[in-house]
Specification:
This protein is an alpha+beta fold and 224 residues long. The chain has 6 helices and 7 strands.
């Protein structure tokens, strides 16, 4: 009964998410048309705010749909050997504008020690979305002008990727809950709904990976 209830919940979430898609697409198109007709000034500022909120709704809808499909066990993965460099490039691409706005730098460590042909077994699209969520979270919680570090290493058992930031880190109370759905920590963004890290965990574990969060030992900052 519990399994059926969970499956029904996932199906309902998927149906609701699909229903969101049509009006959100219409809003995006209308916003683009309106932006072309409006001249610069206060009106343009209102249009940009509307576009930003539409983009946020689109992202939330996509995240909810992904989570519901994962819950129902119908999320398909194209598992193959992917070069780590390709995975990092795909993960960073959508996050670079946010990093640029805050004047943050990205440093990739471990490349010299790792083999040139280092790869990882994953679905490139879903794993880059998961890693992108970790990078986005690191950027949002770190001060302007700081550094986000991506470390890569390899051993006979697994390939590891770590994302570190120079933010305040996690409190002892928050740490056990950071990957829970809809959990918002004390330092969460005002418009955050607490779904990004939960989605990253779901996607990584569905590809037989593991994820954990901790504070950096050498000072402030979070590590995942």
């Amino acid at each position: 009964a519990a399994a059926r209830e969970k499956e029904n919940l996932a199906k309902n979430l998927a149906d609701i998410s699909h229903q969101f898609k049509t009006p959100l697409t219409s809003l995006s198109v209308l916003g683009e048309l309106l932006r072309r007709r409006v001249m610069a000034g206060e009106d343009m500022g209102i249009v940009r705010k509307m576009e930003k909120q539409t983009e946020r709704l689109t992202g939330l809808t996509a995240a909810l749909l992904t989570l519901s499909r994962a819950d129902a066990g119908v999320l398909a993965f194209d598992m193959r050997r992917v070069p780590v460099r390709e995975l990092l490039d795909a993960s960073l691409e959508p996050v670079m504008p946010l990093l640029g706005e805050k004047g943050q730098r990205v440093r990739i460590a471990g490349e010299g020690e790792a083999p040139d042909n280092l790869d990882i077994l994953c679905d490139l699209g879903w794993m880059s979305e998961a890693l992108g969520n970790l990078l986005k979270n690191a950027s949002e919680h770190a001060p302007e002008g700081t550094e986000v570090c991506i470390s890569v290493w390899d051993n006979p058992v697994f390939t590891g990727i770590t994302v570190e930031d120079e933010g305040p880190g996690f409190s002892r109370e928050e740490l056990p809950h950071v990957f829970e759905r809809f959990y918002r920590g004390a330092c969460a963004q005002k418009d955050s709904v607490g779904i990004g890290l939960a989605l990253a965990k779901t996607l990584i574990e569905a590809q037989r990976g593991e994820i954990r969060a901790e504070n950096r030992k050498e000072g402030k900052g979070g590590r995942a």
